[in-house]
Amino acid sequence: MSVSRRTFLKGTVAGVAGLGVVPVFRHIALTQDKIPGDGPVRYVNSSCAICTNKCVFRGQVVNGVIRRLEPEPDFPKSRGMMCARGNAGATTPYDPDRLKFPLIRTGKRGEGKWKKVSWDEAFAYIAEKTNTLVKEEGGNRATIAFASSEGTYQEHYWNQFREVFGSPNSLRHPTLCLSSNIRGFQSVFGTYPNADVANSRYIILAGADRAEAFMTPDTIDMFNKSMPGRKLIYLDPRFTKTAAKADKWFPIKPGTDMAFALAMLNVIIGENLYDKAFVREHCTGFEELAAHVTQYTPEWAQGETGIEASEIRTVAREFAQTPGAVFYPGRRSSWLRDDVQTRRAIAMVNAVTGSFDRPGGLIPNISIPMKGYFYEPAWYSNPRPRLEEEDVMFLNPRDGSWIAWRDRAIKGDPYRIRGMFINKQNVIDSVPDRNKTFELFDKLDLIVTIDTMMSDTAWYSDVVLPESNYLERFDPPYGLGGIEPVIVLRQPLIAPMYDTRPCFDIVKGLAAHFEDEDGDTLDTYFSGTVEEHAEMFVSGLPGAMEMLREKGFYTDGRSAVMGEYRSGKKTVATPSKKIELYSEDFAGRGLDPMPVYRRPEEPGKGQFRFLVGRHAIHTHSMTAAFPELNWHMPENSLWINAAKAREMGIRSGDLVVAQNRSGAEVRIKAQVTEGIRPDCVYFAHGFGSLSQGKPLVYGKGATQAAILESHFEPVSGNACMHETFVEIRKA
Fold this sequence. Notes:
Rossmann fold, Dimethylsulfoxide Reductase, domain 2, 6-stranded mixed β-barrel
């Protein structure tokens, strides 16, 4: 039978429609209306807001409409490239589903009934409700919590509002990401260093899916073919795109990365392959570490990791004998409750081989100094402490610890939380155990959310305040540290299209409706404009603002000078002023002074360990509903090992139910694959939205937040993203 092109295309569209992709065409049609024809062209340099990289781009504007975003070739950190996510940002101002004006809920939470209001009405409503709650709690301003997300450039204004309001309860994203990673490396090196990937000749990655996470410039440098002979070793229970690029992929048993690192130390020290001069001059605790790791042989590690002892020995020897080798520090979200110690073990592999402060190794970050943002603090009598300050050993008071804090808030211990102000953080979809988040929300009398889209969190809020799109607003300069530090700027390509405001205007407007204990309105603590602040930030850097306006970034050409720690010009910021292989600080706090391996919990009969991970096209729930990206992956699916799937009678496309140990469950289509261990399952984040304001992902697939159990690591407060076990069955 022959098939004509017309018949083929007709069938193809029908097939796509059957997969539920038709809404994408509606969105693209609506956004296409904004695409200009020929006309005057102008370029505006600015910086991206789609992920934490903040890459600088050249925005092409035709007839007052954004046509496209192009990479800024001179921006050092993006190496002249721009990823799919950044490109897709060009149409976000024209998304028909974006938030356009302030809203106050009129129905039940999650019912989707809203009233359009003016900004003054919204501010007055928020202030009246908030002041009533504070009064009912005896003047305890800590009863109002504040959540925010990094990367907006204006987050410091949000923090200022929280501080002058008088609440200590701040919650940010790091304890849902890499707090344990940072803490582990800091305990050894006194800093969280960068890997000089561009000059590394041997790289070990433990779960850091660089090919899909797009943390430039590391990703670009890592896969640069101009480094002949470079070797990439990748440990991950899942065959990711990074695994496909690696020289060797080891499907390591989840939670055993520490065993692998300790066995490497056993070989490197036991065979005298360590850098003796570096260890002698710059490290402390080596004798203790050498004695400690004798028990962790490669043969022992084989039983823990599933990686053959001979392979572990080979990797350890190659690593120690290759100049410019580095065991990459992250960014991998927390594995288990011993994650800080796992990161310490990885840091120590780098330390004993002298892979610090040298080309191809770990390099302490530097920055271009800017003048700080200063404001007069407000003082209140009888301030209350954070809820969870006693639950986490190294608690960052600005970041908080989401899981520990939420547990306390649900219990009302040591006091009640009555309201929450949320700035650009999709709490419902990002914090593990969504049922517990709803339990928290049920106890709150007021939820206010600032966002650009109707996220799940906004959908369940009482008031939604629309922030201007990042292509419509001016944000103050933001410093990006690293080996090649820069300062970046965000400036508008177009004027705001709707009744939206930038964060500074929102918090200043809110502040005008609140008073401190002296009766002064809180807006008196906010002075100047964002533009004036920007000028002040870089006033000590001649020509900086001119370059920022023209190029979107500023650099004075500086880069990290290697060898300054080795020469003694600089010292590491540990208590001993040396690289600590044995931590007296940890010992004094009752923690293991050296990493001690404890076998992770095994999945029970019929259980799988649930993994989280990245996807090359999406930045979690932020981009899954982008029309220009959604077509590529309109729905997520559950990876399950082919052999296990056969045993269970599951085929790709079958609807399955995943249920965790607390009884929470999701329904999702299966994807049968050889690319995951038999004891694990996985699905990408960003789907299964509850918000009808995001129709492209509403009810499509599943969200990790619904299935992840709530556990946290008590040293750093990080959520343990891999302590979840699920059972799988056909729906």
